[in-house]
Structure formats: structure tokens, C-alpha cells
Amino acid sequence: MSRRDFHRATEAERRHDLIEATLDCIAEAGLQGATVRQIADKAGVTAGLIRHYFASKDVILQEAYKVLITRLTEKAKNLDGTPEQRLASFIFVNLTEPVANSRSLSLWAAFISRVSVDPALAAIHREGYLSFRQELEQLLADFFAARGVAADPARICTLAIAMNGILDGLWLEGCLAGELFGEGELVSIAFSSIEALIGHPIKPPTPTETDREYRDALRIHHR
After folding, report:
1. Could you tell me the pTM of the whole model?
2. Alpha carbons 58 and 188: distance in angstroms, whole number
3. Omega within 30 of 0 (cis) for the link into 98
4. Domains in the chain with CATH codes
């Protein structure tokens, strides 16, 4: 197990670093394997320092889950361009690296196995899901408004739920068996499926010659 390099940091930075070490441990060994001792070893600190910032292992796990879910919502918020471009980017980023990889799958599987039996994690999950869906609803509302299409909130909510289901299913396929699909195949399926769902075409993002990161991300695979 590799250690993270720590530096003199503020309290907020140290909490952030400890949460990152926790996520690393969960990805490698699951929730049970992510003991305070293992987290401390990964972070290169003492277990006592962890307890200084977090009252218990349950607390640091809850904070780690909040961070994991928040990052997904932030991706929906931090999109640039026209309404169509932002919606297209949303579809793309949710099916490519770093959202779609084996580490993300390991973290998701570890936490989701506890959500149904842990009220605190269940509350975090519900809040994160609703926040994520609200961002998607806003993207859809802006998309329809830009086209001059009337769409009431109830329809937009229904479309957001269905679109999220499509993305979740394809994300899982890509993370579990990405080698079975061609380059960009799942992304292409997502666009065609969502276009059929909402009844309007969506132009996929177009990579430029220098956009190597974008082209590399098109290959969904299991690392």
C-alpha cells in the first residue's frame, strides 16, 4: 500500500488529505478493509491524528461518501457553452474517465452495499441523488428553452430520471466490461438513446486536433 505525501497544511487541507486517503483505502480494500490503521498508514500519519479530525471511522466514511457524491454533482454544475453543449458534455463526462473506471466502480460498490442498512449513508445518498438530478433537470430545462420548446417541470423530472437510468446502466457496463465495447461505443449509444428519449438531436462534443485528453477519454476501459 503506497503512502500519500503530506505537507504542512491547514486544518481544511489536512481533512481533505485524510478523506482522499480514506477513498484510496476503500477502493483497494472495501469499507471493512479501510480501517483507521490502514487509513493512517496510507496517509502517513498516526491513528490518533485521524481521531483528532474525525470522531470515529463511521464519521470519516460518511465524509468520504459526501465528497464522492459531491464531485459528481460538481461535474454537472461546472459545464461551459450553450445549453446543448452543456447537456452533451454532461452525457460525455459521465461515461468517460475519470468517472468511468475501475476505481469509481470499486468506491460505488463499497458504499452502495451499505446504503440500505446505514441510515447516515442513506441520507447522504438521497441528498446527493436529488442534487445530481436537480442539476440534470436544469440542464434539460435550459436545453428545451433554447429550442423554444415548452416543457413542464413534471416532464423534465421524468426525463431526468430516465436519462439518469440510461447513463447509470451504460456506466456500469463500461466499468465492468469496457473491453467488450469499441472505442466510443457506449458514448454513442448514450447519445442515440437520450435523443430518442427527449425527442431532439444532441450534437456530441467535437474534439480538436490538440485535445488529446478528450480523445483519450473516449476509450472507456477497465483499468
Report:
1. 0.82
2. 40
3. yes
4. 1-54 (1.10.10.60), 65-222 (1.10.357.10)
